[in-house]
Each structure stands twice: as structure tokens, then as C-alpha cells.
Amino acid sequence: MKSIKSKIIVFSILATLIPSLGLGISSFQRNEEMITENLARELRTMANYAGRELDLWIKEQMLAVRDLAASISTSKILIEGLSLDNQISKSKSVNQPKATELYLKSVHKRLETVVELTIVDVQGEVIASNVDEPLPVLFAQNWPENASIQGDVVISPQWNEHYGTAIVSIAVPILSIDDYILGALIVTFDMQSLQPNLKAKIRPPQGDILLLDQAGHIMLASDTLLLDKPLSSELNVLSRLRGNPGEYDIFLGPKQEKVAGLAYLSEKTPITIIATRDYQLIYSAWEQQRNIFAGLVGIIILIVTAIAFRLSHAIVKPLQRLIDATEKIVKGDLDVKLANGQRDEIGQLTHRFNQMTDKLRQNQAEINAAAIAMQQKNQLLETLSVTDNLTGLYNRNKLNAIISDQLARFERNKRPFAVLMIDVDYFKTLNDSLGHVVGDEILAAVAKRISQSIRNVDFAARFGGDEFIIILAETTVGEAEKTAERIRTQVADIHCDSINQDLHVTLSIGVIQSEPDDSSLTILLSRVDSALYEAKRAGRDQVYCLSPSTPEIAP
């Protein structure tokens, strides 16, 4: 017959091992699912980023071709060359096309990313080119009637053996003075300039980006060592990836290592974008965690076995009740009450445990009440520290922080913001004649109208006395002037409850727009104060805008 101690040992081992294995298996399955989800998300992000960069790069080249066409279409040599081809028989003089070719060669020398410059007539026949044998181009049947002024991709991105690089050709119509299409300028670009942008430059993700043409040839890659290698040594990998865009697959990559990759098919150009990551690198952390878990489980089993040898049935059961109750407390359940029918040390421990839970419940209630009260007071103090108690607007300290933040934003993104300085006209006279109570009521009413006239992204503050400052985020001086006029109009009539009388209140408003020279808060406030001074000097009750080209006038 087995002893109680042996039963306890076996029970302890099984009680430790079974939950640990169950939890471990469940945890690792969940971790594997998370790794799979994160991997698919990261690969999609990489591929989408490369796709956006590709589309943006092509748009930029279209703009460059359009600008180039606009600049060279004004050339007398070019216009005469096209006119010569359209109006004179080809059997006549060829001096003009030769001159056009020389002109294109001179232009090509200044363009680093361009490999070919070709001019064709409306029939698509080559008039001149900077190379002896330009790439053949087939226009659409409805060209030039539906020719895009923005530019058309006439040769899709592909690997070109002659130039030993990936190329794309963009055509833009060449217009006469009266907007008649004389022909087209075809510019063939070397796509190597796109290679540095295939992956994000700030914290670039691990993995590789491959751009494949329709034939499956790698045209561009984030790692240039992959250009002369096939996508994979396995068959049908490209077909599987193209057939399931956005879903990753496991295969041998160009470096003959096991990789996870997915395909993104560009909608605008016939290009397949492949994002890959090293499979071993992805799962190495998971395997390491698995080994650590196995080691920890082994250590725990040894510890439990050693402890079980020293326990007896008489103390295991009540101690287990105490352990279970303690776990509930750790998880936040303080409604624990253990039955105590023993008078030995275990009974005393159980009694002390019940006293402890009662005290914890009492302390928790007190702590929760104190935390709520402290949170409310902190919120009130935070609000009072940044607002003016009369108007409810931001105070001077908060205004300084806001302006400093706006200056820093302006330095980063170069988007201007506008500053309005508002002064209540003849406020001292109103304050002296009607009393301070009426004066405070006027200031509060003006502040309310200001708050109602600005956007949620703008800021209003009481600068001091009867002066107010408004910060209009990402706003030019012209837009700010409209806001200033709206505020001035809405403040015209104010009803004062203390004297039950409507008062006519006017405002003088100075408006400026942030400039690169605004290196500090003092300079900015000095300029807007100058604008306010001009509004007052011009007769008050008006808005004066200090435009960027208007020099400051010292008060």
C-alpha cells in the first residue's frame, strides 16, 4: 500500500505538470498565431509601402517629364523639327532632325536618371532621339485624341538587358502655341533611383523587397545582391504568390535560405512586389522561449517534489485552502472568508488570514475613496493652473507654452500659423466710468465671443488686462483676417446684466503670420504688437494685417 507521502508527491507532480503543460501548449499555440499574424501584417506593410513608393516615384517622373516637355517645347529647334516632319516630305532636308538630336543629347547630359530622350510625331514615328536605336513604343489606338497631358506609361517597368537595369518610359504630348498636339516626348528612366526608397529609411523593417516584371525577372531589390538571382529555386512559387496576393507562403529565397514572403500586385503598373523575411530569424525567439519554458517546468517539478517530501496530509489540505484564498486576493477578489474549525497552528493562521482580508477590504475602500478625491483635486488644480479665472481662457503661462509649441511645429513642417492680438478700445474709460464689475463683465463677454468664433484646434488666451491673444493653427494671414473681422463684428453689442444695459464695444485687432525669422516668442509677440499698434493708430475698431512682405513699424 502506498504511503500518504508518496501519494502527495505523485499528486503534487501531476498537479504541477498537467496545468503547466496545458498552459504552455496553449500559450505557444497562441504565440505562434500571434507570430503568424504579425508576420503577415509586417509583410503586407512592407509591400504596401514599396507599392506606394513605386506609384509616387512614377508620379514624380510624370511631373518631371511634363516639366521637361514644357521647357523644351519652347525650343525653336524642337518646334521646327516637328513642323518639318509634319509639313514637309521626309525626302527633303534632314538638317533639322539632326539639330533636334543634338539638342536632345545636350539635354540628356543634364539628366542623371534618364537613359533615353525620344521625340515622335502624331503617327508615333521617331523624329529624333539621343540614341541611335531608341526603344520601340506602341501608343494606344486612340492616341493622340485621348493623350494624357499628365503623362502616360508607354513602356511598363521591366528589366532591359541593353542598359543592364530596370527602365520605364513615360510619354507626354508636345503642344504647339495654340495647344495643338505636334507629337510626344518619350523619356526612359533608370529605375535604380527608386531602390533606396523600397524600405522605410527611419527604423527600416527586417527583410527584403523585390520588384518583379511580368516575366518574373527581379528588376529592383532592397538588397542589390539579389538582382542577378531568381526569386526561388522552387517551382511555381511566383504563381502561388501571385494567385494569393496578401497571403504569405514559405519557400527558399534567392539566397537559398528559408523565407516567408507574400506578393502585392500593383494596380497601376504590371509589377509584382514581393516582401520576404528570414524564416529562421522569425521563429528563433519562439524556439528559445519554448526551451526556457521546458527548463522552468523541470525546475518547478523538482521544487514541488522536494517540498512534497516534507509535507503531510494533515497540513497539505488547510494550506491548500490558504493558497487558493491568497490567489483570489492577488487577483483582486477580497471577498474571501475561510472556515476555521481548528485550534492548532493552522487554525491560528487561518484566523489571522481572515483578519488580514477584513483589514485589506477596509484599506482598499479607504484607498479608493482617497484616490477618487485626489484625482478630482488634481484635475481641478490642473485646470486652474492654465486658465484665467475671469474669462475662462488660457492664461499667460499657458500661452507662452502654446506659442513655443507652434514655433517648433512651424520649424518642422513649414506650415504657417496666424497670431491675433486683440485690444478692447477705450476699456480704461469704460472701466472708470461704469465700474470694475461692468469692466469684468465686458471682458468675460468678449472672451466668450472669441471662444465661439474659433475652431477646436485654435487657442485663445488672456494676454493681460484687456488684451487677448488668439493662435490659429495652420492658417495664413488672409484666412486669419476673416476670423478677426468676424470677432470684431460679433463683439459690437454686449449686454451687461449688472447695469441692465447694452454697450457698444469695439476692438482693435492686429494680425500676423508666422515667418522663418520668428526664432523666439518675444519676436513673434513684438510683431503682432506692432500690428495692433497700427490698428489703433488707424482709428481703432478695425483689423490690421501685417503681411510677410510688410516691414514692421516700431510702436
Walk me through the topology.
Blueprint: H1 4-72, H2 76-87, H3 95-108, E1 114-121, E2 126-129, E3 152-160, E4 165-175, E5 181-190, E6 208-212, E7 218-221, H4 237-243, E8 249-252, E9 258-265, E10 272-278, H5 279-309, H6 313-330, H7 345-386, H8 396-413, E11 418-424, H9 427-434, H10 436-453, E12 459-464, E13 467-472, H11 477-490, E14 493-496, E15 501-504, E16 507-513, H12 521-537, E17 542-546
Parallel strand pairs: 16-17
Antiparallel strand pairs: 1-2, 1-5, 3-4, 4-5, 6-7, 6-10, 8-9, 9-10, 11-13, 11-16, 12-13, 14-15
Helix pairs in contact: 1-5, 2-3, 6-7, 9-10
Describe the protein's architecture and organization.
This protein has 555 residues and is an alpha+beta fold. Helix content is 48%, strand content 20%. It has 12 helices and 17 strands. It has helices at residues 4-72, 76-87, 95-108, 237-243, 279-309, 313-330, 345-386, 396-413, 427-434, 436-453, 477-490, 521-537; strands at 114-121, 126-129, 152-160, 165-175, 181-190, 208-212, 218-221, 249-252, 258-265, 272-278, 418-424, 459-464, 467-472, 493-496, 501-504, 507-513, 542-546. The strands form 4 sheets. A 5-stranded antiparallel sheet has the order 2-1-5-4-3. The chain has a 5-stranded antiparallel sheet with strand order 7-6-10-9-8. Strand 12 (459-464) and strand 13 form a beta hairpin. Helix 1 packs antiparallel against helix 5, helix 6 (313-330) packs parallel to helix 7 (345-386) and helix 9 crosses helix 10. It is flat, with a radius of gyration of 39 Å.
Mean pLDDT: 82
What's the helical proportion of residues? 40-55%
- Total helical elements: 12
Strand segment count: 17
One letter per element, helices H and strands E, the order comes to: HHHEEEEEEEHEEEHHHHEHHEEHEEEHE
Strand order of the largest sheet: 2-1-5-4-3
Structural class comes to alpha+beta
Radius of gyration: 39 Å
β content, as a range? 15-25%
The largest sheet, given as strand count, sense and whether it forms a barrel, is: 5 strands, antiparallel
